[in-house]
Amino acid sequence: MKVAVLDITGKDTGRKVELSSEVFEIEPNNHAIYLDVKQHLANKRQGTHKSKERAEISGSTRKIKKQKGTGTARAGSIKSGVFRGGGRMFGPRPKDYSFKLNKNLKRLARKSALSVQAKDNNLVVVENFDFDTVKTKNFVNVLKALGLENKKSLFVLAESNNNVYLSSRNLKSSKVLNSSQLSTYGILNANKIVFTEGSLEGVESNFNK
């Protein structure tokens, strides 16, 4: 699969790069994608939800009415969950929602996600670029040149670049990662994925192990 290489002004450089068919043109495995996205979202959950149970409520311990003769159900404590202000019965407790997946499945899921985006023509390749200073306007100009100003975009760099990353940080619709940080959720959540030329080698080597 060949893709034209653009510069950061959006102009065609006249060159093309060959994308690995083993990464960008496989038959997508939907179940692997589902599991990897599910893990990503589950691992982000704090799991700190908690409600007070009967033993944790402050209140009198006296028996609130006599055992027999009232014609109603027995009641031994005002802290019971059946009374207003009492503890919650079977309420939520702190829980760790994270779970593990093996590396081969995660690799398959990410290749499947890239193949889905490639099939939908959502991949863009640009020349390697850098900024002299940290300035959001610089990154906005790149987005405008590539026609991504109002779209969710994911920029994949060959390695961490502080100036580019910090210039994009205030823009909610754009995210900058290096090739080793790609996730299935991040790939599918973007309308367009912009790879720098240098990042392609890292992506293909990481996913072809």
Automatic annotation (TrEMBL):
Domain of life where this protein originates: Bacteria
Name the UniProt record assigns to this protein: Large ribosomal subunit protein uL4
Region (Disordered): 43-77
Biological function: One of the primary rRNA binding proteins, this protein initially binds near the 5'-end of the 23S rRNA. It is important during the early stages of 50S assembly. It makes multiple contacts with different domains of the 23S rRNA in the assembled 50S subunit and ribosome.
Keyword RNA-binding found: yes
Transmembrane regions listed in the UniProt entry: none
Cellular component, GO annotation: ribonucleoprotein complex; ribosome
